[in-house]
Each structure stands twice: as C-alpha cells, then as structure tokens.
Amino acid sequence: MNSIQANNYLVHFNQNAYEALNKHLRENKYSNIFIIVDDQTNEYCLPKFIPHLETELAIEIIEFEAGEANKNIETCIEIWNILTELGGDRKSLVINVGGGVVTDLGGFVASTFKRGVDFINVPTTLLSMVDASVGGKTGVDLGNLKNQIGVINVPQMVLIDTEYLETLPQTEMRSGLAEMLKHGLIYDAPYWRQFSDLKSIVFDELDQLIYRSVEIKNEIVIQDPTEKNIRKALNFGHTLGHAIESYFLESEEKTTLLHGEAIAVGMILESYISLQKNLITEQEYREIKTIIKGIYDDVIFEENDIDPILELLIHDKKNEYGTIQFALIEGIGKIKINQSVENKLILDAFQDYKS
Fold first, then answer.
1. Which residues are part of the catalytic machinery?
2. Which of 2, 80, 217, 220 is the most exposed place for a label (fewest CB within 10 A)?
3. What is the pLDDT of residues 199-219, one digit of tens each?
C-alpha cells in the first residue's frame, strides 16, 4: 500500500513502515531513543517492534499503566521526570508504540519536553490506526473530561502495521470499528455500506478498509488542520459520545466504556437528532440504528444518568460562546456542522435509543 501524505508527514503501511523508519533514523542525528508504551503494548507489541529497529543508538523503554484513567497530567509528569533522569535532550527521539492513549499522551509529552522533541507514532489498535494516527492532536484528560489539555503537533511519521491487530481482543476491534463507521457516515456512503455485513469481511479486506479510513480522515484534516471548519465533521457521534464516556469513567456504579462503545451510542443519538432536524430520512436512521446496534451491546441508561451526562456537554471542546455545537449528518455520507440542539431533543434521543 502506498504511503499517505498528511500535513507535513507521511503515514506508512506494513513493511514499508519499517523501511521508512530506518531511513529516517539514518538521516537524522538523534542522541538517543525513548519508546513510550503501556504495560499491554510492552508485553504484546514491543517484542514485535524492536527487531525492526536498525540503530546503534541507546534505547530506553518508558512504561505506564494501560487505560484511559492514566491519560492525565500526573502520568506526563512521571514521564518528563524519567526523560530528564535518563538524559533526554532536544535531539532525543520519542517513539510511541500503543493505542490512542499512548499516542495522544506520548505525543503531548514529546511536544512539550524541552519545548518539543521529534516523535513517531506506531498505533497498535484499530482505533488508533484509523483515528489517532492522523491529525496531530495530542493531549490528556483533565479529571474525567476528555482531551481538555493538549496541543496540535504532527509527528515525524506514522507507522501502521496491521499485524499488531492479531494481539487485540474482539472488544478492542469493535471499539476501533466505530470510528470507521463514522468515516463512512460523514463522508463516504458506499464505504459505510461495506460494514452492513461484517461476517463477510476477511482480514485482507480489513487492510484496505483501514487504508480508506485513514484516507478519509486525512482528506478532511488537510482542508482544516486546526478544526475551524470542516474538521468539525469528525466530531459526529462524539459530542454526546464523549459525555457518555466521561460519565461512565467517573461513576463508581458504572462499568467503564471503551471509546468506540460510547461513540457508537453517540452516533445513534446524533443520527436521531439529525432525523428530527429533517437532515436524514426515517429509512436512513433505521439503517444506521440497526447496523450499529447489531455490532454493539446496548448501554443501559437509568433516568438519573441523563442529567449528569447533559451537564458534561458544557465542557465539550467544540462549544463556542456557551453554545453546544453538534456535527450532524445530512444524509448518509454528508455532514452539517455548527448545529445547535436543544436539551429536549437530546432527551428524546435517549428515549428513542432505549426503545
């Protein structure tokens, strides 16, 4: 597969990825290499990655505990201290090997250490390959509020090797699939409909689906790198999805949701809102709801869950001048950004989801 040109960097695939990495290491005089992983990718992915490195530079592994709960400034402080203790300098290279938590946090750590050192992302989950790999967003959560602290800063390159997916449980694969479904819904109706029968998709086809998903996100981001306009399309399903994810993360009575599980709910809710605003047809809404509910288990919402979720919308990064902004779909494959939605319509969407 050909490499994809993103904003000031390339996304490389499979064997081409390691050739590009080693060429980059030969051409740049780095002082040392720090590889940031979580405990899961340290065990399952790093043994595959390290043999591909062709370098005599000193390599240090920095590990933190896996999970969204550790995507915070405290983890960053620990890593900044380790980088300092191990002699990190402006010519160090950081390589982030892991899922979206690792690449988001590791990219932020690298972007702020010594006012910025080079970094490379090696996404190892389906979610990070199709979402976190493109766009240059880095950052951490503030308490239970998603991605409140961060910067947009692009890596030197992104390396996607789909063999890492063989180490993933099915729940993580489904989580990543949500972003691929979103890309179809907002941009490419034929791509969306390829997911109507998941049982017919084989692994070789998955490579091509991942490639197309990266293409879609990249085509949007190139038009609007700093999310002033069309890049807001990528927030479809995320306005409510992030609030749901945050609420389930902070509630001791709830089982924490994976990102994609929350976004799947968000896409159904925001599709219902699109229906009520006459942006999609009843038939399109039923198609979306049926396909997504056929992939993901229903999330149970009690009556006393809804108000706290709505309160979390206030902190959504897309809000402007105190108004909650939604990206809604205008037919399958098209998007309408900067849409205001009243609370009653959101409540109706939750009622419909539960029905």
1. 115, 137, 179, 217, 227, 231, 235, 238, 242, 259
2. 2
3. 667 667 899 999 999 999 999
